[in-house]
From TrEMBL:
It comes from the Bacteria. Pfam families: SpoIID. This is Stage II sporulation protein D. One of its GO terms (biological process) is sporulation resulting in formation of a cellular spore. It comes from Brevibacillus aydinogluensis.
Length: 334
């Protein structure tokens, strides 16, 4: 018996370390180690690629700035992902960011921005930092951080993610609860390439688990419900009606009303729709797992995959199922 116990205590830590890598190997479209993006993407030589410019609405200045596509992508990656992340994760982020704006340019979907602009510089679209902002933010660390961002963008220059020849809706977020989410279960519109996949690496994120506290009165006001009586009686004061494929709250019943997990999260300002709740001394303790909507590429998951030896192409093909990599010049409509 002691021999088996020794084997168990030695083997369990090894299993926990190897499991994430095994999941990638099992589910990744390129489980043989793959090659670099530059070697597999059907690049158009930069001299033949059409000149693409992005008109960014600078929210603070209330002006529109026109910048080359790759300069814009650098600004987005710098704003959306820590420069300290693995270079392959930064490359994956660069492709997602480039795909997002190329999709907008292709569809000419500019009705939600001031006239003359293509995109906002906020998280409503994609956060964006120009070079001066990066210098002010990073100070003495500017050179090495900006160098990593530029390396990732240049290594994937022109590459976008497509599904059936069209740029995808390359949604991304910070941290999952261990799984990404089916698009149809959060945004209520199924998307074939935005399917739930395991993302066990996210446990390393500082945002993986957080507890937020509010008074019962505050919760009632934000939801437009009354739960004080149920709370005082010690009875069941809420019920999870439905869970999603990604193990988030799909529907919740509270105070005689039913909310979707997304609506509940947004009304209360929660990090995630994966949550549990407890009542103590007139306060509600809500513990969330993950940060963000959960659909598409998990940034901490991408970084974990990169640490496990996967390259950028493998990362994006894992989080966006069934996609292809193409040059933006071949998919951008005139």
């Amino acid at each position: 018996m002691k021999r088996y116990l020794i084997v168990w205590f030695i083997g369990l830590p090894i299993l926990l370390v190897l499991m994430p890598a095994a999941l990638v190997t099992l589910f990744s479209p390129l489980s043989d180690g793959g090659t670099d993006v530059a070697a597999v993407a059907p690049h158009t030589p930069s001299s033949n690629r059409p000149k693409i410019e992005v008109k960014v609405y600078r929210t603070n200045k209330k002006t529109v700035e026109t910048v080359p596509l790759e300069t814009y992508v650098e600004g987005v990656v710098a704003a959306e992902m820590p420069a300290e992340f693995e270079i392959e994760a930064l490359k994956a982020q660069a492709m997602a960011a480039r795909t997002y704006i190329v999709r907008r340019l292709s569809e000419k979907a500019f009705g939600d921005v001031p006239e003359g602009a293509h995109v906002l510089d906020t998280v409503k679209h994609q956060a964006y930092l120009d070079e001066q902002q990066r210098r002010e933010l990073w100070k003495e660390q500017f050179d090495w951080k900006n160098g990593r961002i530029r390396q990732a963008v240049q290594a994937t220059a022109g590459v976008v993610l497509t599904y059936q020849g069209e740029p995808i809706d390359a949604t991304f977020f910070s941290t999952s609860n261990g799984f990404t989410e089916n698009a149809g279960e959060y945004f209520e519109k199924p998307v074939p390439y935005l399917k739930s996949v395991a993302s066990p690496w996210d446990i390393q994120s500082p945002s993986y688990e957080k507890t937020q506290v509010m008074t019962v009165a505050d919760l009632e006001q934000k939801l437009g419900v009354r739960i004080a009586q149920e709370a005082a009686s010690g009875g069941s004061w809420y019920r999870i009606v439905e869970r999603t494929t990604g193990n988030r709250v799909g529907k919740i019943s509270i105070g005689g009303k039913e909310f979707s997990g997304r609506e509940f999260r947004e009304r209360l300002g929660l990090n995630s729709s994966a949550f549990t709740m407890e009542l103590q001394d007139g306060k509600v303790y809500i513990t969330t797992k993950g940060y963000g909507h959960g659909v598409g590429m998990s940034q901490w998951g991408a970084n974990g995959m990169a640490k496990a030896g996967k390259n950028a192409e493998q990362i994006v093909k894992y989080f966006y199922q069934g996609i292809s990599l193409e040059d933006c010049g071949s998919v951008l409509k005139s």
